[in-house]
Amino acid sequence: MFYYRQYYPSIQLADIIECYWVLRAPNSFMDVPDRLIPGGRVELIFNFGDPADWLITADNPHGTRVSEPVIMGQRNQIFYVKSTGKIRMLGIRFKPGGLASFTNLPISDLLNMLLPAEQLLGKAVKSLEMRLSDYSDDDKQIQLLDAILKTELKNTPVDLLVVNQTIDMLRNSRDDISIDTICQQTGWYYKKLERIFLKNVGYTPKHYHKILRFNKAVRYMRTTNTLTDVCHVCNYFDQAHFIRDFRLFTGTTPSQFKKEDNKIADFLIKYQSV
After folding, report:
1. pLDDT tens digits for 11-48?
2. Distance (Å, rounded) from C-alpha 217 to C-alpha 88?
3. How many CB atoms are closer than 10 A to CB 198?
């Protein structure tokens, strides 16, 4: 039986962690490669089930098979994932810029990467995995994870305030506010904002804006059948512009995407905010 649930972090972590999530599924759930679309986040994933093949592409059809805890970096291209058996995963989905509170590594170094979590966060990750495996109850695992992260939290980077303010302006603008306009309104220099975003979010502000707009569009597609409406609401110049971005981030056209069985994309579109 397929099961997916998200949990909110404690108030101390709410600015840096979007959610914790649990995924359980039988052998047949992802026995063929399933599409991962870019969402602009970094995730720490613990695997208590069978190994999974991550980051499958046309050039790398077997992907990277792992069972250890991994950091899945932010992405700007299409990847696929495939299970080798039963799925039982526990994940931390960081808000854009959130992982920077736990590491000094520039997040731009994680673009389209899958790394052993121990390589980035140290040997404590293995100890944490063992402690989590002592519990079969999801709630107890989440409580333990949240408590440990609070003790490991460094001082919130000052840059995170700039990141959050920029993202809020992009998300909440009724019109398609440009990064240049944000710089004019706030007095920030674009080059400085770009350095802050690359270090903390892993994209330039303009590329993050592109991914944000795509995610708005792919969600709006669930409520309308016309690309004209999608382009208008999400401020694409025309359908050709939208389809070009859509192909870049999904590997297919909007019409074909709606016909296909995109298990992971479908429940993330349903449960994950833009």
Report:
1. 999 999 999 999 999 887 888 889 999 999 999 999 99
2. 30
3. 19
Alpha-carbon gap, residue 70 to 155, rounded angstroms:
24
H or E segment and range at residue 257: helix 254-259
Give ranges for CATH 1.10.10.60 in the chain. Answer: 159-271
- Ranges in the chain annotated CATH 2.60.120.10: 3-152
Q: How far apart are CA 250 and CA 79, in angstroms?
A: 8
Side by side, the strands of the sheet bearing 70-72 are 3-7, 17-25, 87-94, 43-47, 70-72, 114-116
Is residue 174's pLDDT more than 80?
Answer: no
Per-residue burial over 70-93, b = 16 or more CB atoms within 10 Å of its CB, e = otherwise: bbbbbbbebbbbbbeeebbbbbbb
Phi, psi of 4 (to 5 degrees): -140, 130
Tokens describing residue 115 = 């790394």
Q: Considering the domain delimited by 159-271, tell me its CATH architecture.
A: Orthogonal Bundle (1.10)
3-state secondary structure of 112: coil
Helix, strand or coil for residue 18? strand
C-beta of residue 12 within 8 angstroms of C-beta of residue 150: yes
Query: Are 24 and 39 spatial neighbours (Cβ–Cβ below 8 Å)?
Result: no
pLDDT tens across 80-111, in order?
999 999 999 999 999 999 999 999 999 999 99
Which phi and psi (to 5°) does residue 108 adopt? Answer: -60, -25
Beta bridge partners of 81: 34
Looking at domain 3-152, its CATH superfamily turns out to be Jelly Rolls (2.60.120.10)
Q: pLDDT tens digits for 252-266?
A: 999 999 888 888 888
